[in-house]
Amino acid sequence: MTGTALSAKDAAQKARQARAIRECLDRHIPACQPVALLQFPFDFNVGNHMMWVAAMDYLKERRVPIAYTAHGCNLDLKEMKRAVGDGTILFSGGVTVSRLWPRHAEVKRLVAEACPDNRLVSLPSTMLFVDDEDRRAASTIFGNHRNAVLLARDPVSAESARSVFPGNVQVEAVHDSALLLPPQPRHAAPDHDIIWLARDDMERVGCLAPTGVEVFDWVRYDPAGMRILFPGRFFSRLRKLAPALRSIANRQITRSYDRFARYVLASGNRRLDTGKVLVTDRMHPHILCALRSQHSVLLPDRFGKNRAVYEYTGRHYSTVHWADTPEEALDIAYTVARSTPI
């Protein structure tokens, strides 16, 4: 079974947004030079892997050589510089410049210091800052680097970043890179009218999901998925121990990461298959629903990320709805579920 295709209006909107993302990336990523793609999400957060798969697909489509990939703990700056030469260094998107997720900011700082002559491009992200101390620390991440580009996934984030980073850091707003993914099909009939994907980390507001609906989060450890990463872990060690095999190791690591990211994305699709309508306070599920032509109701997060992305990207889709409270979200979800055939 496959789900309903995107409506003509939604398909046109997605095409416009994807075209804007490609044009933006084309301006900042030369097709003829190798790249390093950093901050692989060594986790089961489906949204992180949506961005990784989208970046990989874009680079392959444009035939940009991927010379080096790494996550936050196996990054070897010397080996990365050897592999990428004078090519572009890419940082995967997310919330990546504040102390909310400090390892992301630390990696950017280390790379900026070690690679003053490489172009640095941070793929579409939300620029969240907890307080003035966080802003001061973030403003120094890229130092005096002369060729650093921050892509913000909404204008609010872009303005926030411009107020924090010095003039040598270029900031540009563009839609989240997950919109580069193709439409995602439904493969099974839903078990529930409403499913409620509730985050359980520092970005949650604290509102409780109601009783009587299927509640879950999509960051779940999966032993089968971890087995897909075994080759990547093996070749990460080999990359350090056998210099003559570094090029082979880099290719195998990239393949392992790619397989794992697509596995996690498929698991997210299977989870969304269980419901007719999704309610969530995570940002990426509503984008995945838009790609599936599945109705979703988006709730606020703690820092305003969801609302900013909704206004810039999500609200243009006929299947995306906004609610300020769980009670309002439940009302919208039940109304939509009653009127939506599968």
UniProtKB/TrEMBL annotation:
InterPro entries: Polysacch_pyruvyl_Trfase
Annotated keywords: Transferase
One annotated GO molecular function: transferase activity
Record-annotated Polysaccharide pyruvyl transferase domain positions: 45-290
Name the UniProt record assigns to this protein: Pyruvyl transferase EpsO
Source organism of this protein record: Mycoplana dimorpha
